[in-house]
Amino acid sequence: MAAEIKKIKNNFQKDLENAKNSGSLKKLKIKYLGRKSKISELFSNIPNLAKQERGYWGKELNILKNQISAAIEARLAEKNQQEERMDLTYPARLPDKGSSHILSSVTSDICLIFKELGFHIISGDEVEDEWHNFSALNIPLEHPSRDAFDTFYLDLSKKNQKSGDWLLRSHTSPSQIRMMQKLTPPLAVVSPGRVYRPDVVDATHSFMFYQIEGFAVGENLSFADLKGVLLHFAKQFFSQKVQLRFRPHFFPFTEPSAEVDVSCVICGGNQAEGEGRCSVCKGKGWLEILGCGMIHPNVLEACGIDSNKYQGFAFGMGVDRIVMQKYQINDIRLFYENDLNFLKQFPI
Ligand code: DAH
């Protein structure tokens, strides 16, 4: 009997080590504790033993049975826990999805406001020529923005004499020219995209930034139409409460021209003076948001549009600056550093 018990113990130990999952542990239970197990066979042999030995081996067999049962239960509990941890039906962890960059999402918010007014959204080319970027926009040859310090010229052979050198566009205004050449009035277009200027990079300057150009050409268009469109945009984008201020200005491609300020989105112009003055508008009460005007007749004519029959208005805004004002960001470089801690702060 002693040898049998030892053999059962050894076999069980080996079987236990090999039992990989709860299924095989359950099989062990049947093998060692079931009705047809070796142990129950030994139990049924007890009456055949010498009378004085029966009690002793009965006890020994019971101990063995309890030990085996406890070992299986313990291992089963362990396995169940592990198998629970590997629940394959549990929903997978979603990978980080990413989202629109704040400049992209504000650009599309702005374009959408104009789209609802009937403007088409088109993207122009980032590589332009001198004629589209300057000449056709009535920018004279001696204008400082044509200087190599203010524009990135590209080392490519000229298309023809008229188009001049290739360059990275310094503003989105050449998309006015491209579209006016292509479409017949009435037309209304917004054109967002990157522009490039060899500025020294600091908190408010970047060699690349974003603009949105808008323009419309038709019969009987006036400055009043321009004002109405821009006021609608400002109310939709900033808040219904904002006011606009048009300051006379000069742009070669518009006449008359204006720079437009929006009443400060933070203090509403109420903390303009004295102590505790607003840090966003620096106490001025106004924030400059864009340049605009009535398209110069020379520009219309350069695109083959009869300036006696048609008028147009145009405007151009810097997206970076508007986002900086709206979210009180004090350094333009943050937009381009790809720091997720910064980018994740914006609502998607
Ligand atoms: N192109 C100008 C710039 O980059 C912005 C601008 C001003 C665009 C007046 C216009 C406009 O269409 O009418 O500074």
The domain tally reads 2
Enumerate the spans where pLDDT stays under 50 for 5 or more consecutive residues: none
* Largest beta sheet: strand ordering: 1-4-5-9-8-7-6
The helix tally amounts to 11
CATH topology of the largest domain: BirA Bifunctional Protein, domain 2
Helix content: 25-40%
Q: Nearest-angstrom radius of gyration?
A: 40 Å
Largest beta-sheet characterization:
7 strands, mixed
CATH class annotation of the largest domain = Alpha Beta
- Classified in CATH, the superfamily of the largest domain is Bira Bifunctional Protein, Domain 2
The pLDDT mean sits at 92
Proportion of residues in β-strands: 15-25%
State the shape.
Answer: rod-shaped
SSE sequence, one letter per element: HHHHHEEHEHEEHEEEHEHH
Distance between the termini: 76 Å
CATH architecture of the largest domain: 2-Layer Sandwich
Query: How many strands appear in the DSSP assignment?
Result: 9
List the SSEs and their pairings.
Blueprint: H1 2-18, H2 22-33, H3 38-45, H4 51-85, H5 102-116, E1 120-121, E2 127-129, H6 130-133, E3 166-168, H7 174-182, E4 187-196, E5 208-218, H8 223-237, E6 244-251, E7 254-263, E8 286-295, H9 297-302, E9 311-318, H10 319-327, H11 340-343
Parallel strand pairs: 1-4
Antiparallel strand pairs: 2-3, 4-5, 5-9, 6-7, 7-8, 8-9
Helix pairs in contact: 1-4, 2-4, 5-8
The structure holds 3,4-dihydroxyphenylalanine.
The site of 3,4-dihydroxyphenylalanine has 11 residues, from strand 8 and strand 9.
